[in-house]
Amino acid sequence: MTPDRRWITEAIRELKADSTRSADTHLLRFPVPSDWGVDLYFKDESSHPTGSLKHRLAKSLFIYGLVGGRIGAGTTVVEASSGSTAVSEAYFARMLGLDFVAVMAASTSRRKIELIEGYGGRCVLVATAGEVYAEAERIARDSGGYYLDQFTNAAVATDWRGNNNIACSIFEQMAGERHPEPAWIVSGAGTGGTTATIARYARYAGVATRVAVGDPEGSVFEEAWRTGRTDVTGRGSRIEGIGRPRVELSFLPSVIDWVQTVPDAASIAAMTVVSDVLGRAPGPSTGTNLVVALDLARDMVARGETGSIVTLLCDGGDRYSDTYYDAGWVAAQGFDVAPPLAALRERLAG
Ligand SMILES: *Cc1c(COP(=O)(O)O)cnc(C)c1O
């Protein structure tokens, strides 16, 4: 059955109007010792209306489903998520008057569940991150709904050529800097969609910028990138938003120049450092990004290179006040944050 065209046109107008009401996200300078000759920036994706970089992806996934004739009036929309995508999708589902179901691991932060429910979405919790896919598929099938499937569609639903995607926006905002063409852009990979968009855009735009990924413990992306294997599985990540227990189709290793495993304690320590230095508290995946960006900066300094590195502030720390920002919770998880925190502070002191 073909969904009603007038309804689709109206739905797409609504989604576009959300962009028209919004300003671009800021590119913030992150101060590092000036003798490095390397400049570091964070693109603050926490300032989207739904608080994370997933605002971009969720809108793209809805438009992709709408233009493909898969979403119409009354379609139940379903997603498998580690939380942030579902928050943004719940927001857009409510905007379009659609029922929304999020399937997530039971470990997902309480705050994200509250946000999804606050937007009128329903949360289905499964024991482990590896179980979300089949359950989301099942719910979509049983309800005659549509599975947005970010882990498959992220790399195809986003306009990588431009249309103010994240890459386009970064390059425009770098135009007035002393090193406008970043040597590196650093991101974590959850779907892998952000790195795919940035890397494709860089090739299309003809710039030399390379793309690096920080991968948390328990994720398979580093091994998949290093070995070329797509059948590796792992226990999954303890850094919300990034790292996966299987190699997702939307993760494109062929366009990624460097992948580095980052210890969880280092990610959490670096999250605290970003919060202290920028006065904006991020989530832990932003810490992972800082660790990789600082290692790349150190390598550039060692080779006598100057230039710029851009990375992302992926989401806000308010979502994690009872987890990564709670010292008791962090200690109970067995994360020893003090040593990496001291090391990071020493490096940044020059
Ligand atoms: C999804 C996500 C990422 C990674 O982005 P992808 O485009 O899915 O690879 C990083 N941090 C957070 C908090 C996220 O939710």
Identify low-pLDDT runs: none
- Give the strand order of the largest sheet, numbering strands 1, 2, ... along the chain: 1-2-10-7-8-9
Instruction: Report the sheet with the most strands, covering strand number, pairing sense and barrel closure.
Output: 6 strands, mixed
> What is Rg?
20 Å
CATH architecture descriptor text of the largest domain? 3-Layer(aba) Sandwich
The backbone outline, from C-alpha atoms, is globular
Measured between the Cα atoms of the first and last residue, the distance is 64 Å
| Structural domains: how many | 2
Protein name: L-cysteine desulfhydrase Cds1
Modified residues (N6-(pyridoxal phosphate)lysine): 54
Family: Belongs to the cysteine synthase/cystathionine beta-synthase family. Cds1 subfamily.
EC number: 4.4.1.1
Give structural attributes.
350 residues; alpha/beta; Rossmann fold; 2 domains; six-stranded mixed beta sheet; four-stranded parallel beta sheet; 10 strands; globular; binds pyridoxal-5'-phosphate; Cds1; pyridoxal phosphate
Can you tell me about this structure?
It is an enzyme of class 4 (lyase). Its main location: cytoplasm. It comes from Subtercola boreus. It is found in: Cytoplasm. Residues 24-315 form the Tryptophan synthase beta chain-like PALP domain. By secondary structure, the chain is an alpha/beta fold. It folds into 2 domains: 22-50 and 161-348, Rossmann fold, CATH 3.40.50; 55-154, Rossmann fold (3-Layer(aba) Sandwich). The protein is 44% helix and 15% strand. The strands form 2 sheets. A 6-stranded mixed β-sheet has the order 1-2-10-7-8-9, sandwiched between helices. The chain has a 4-stranded parallel β-sheet with strand order 5-4-3-6, sandwiched between helices. It starts with a helix and ends with a helix. 52% of the residues are buried. The protein binds pyridoxal-5'-phosphate.
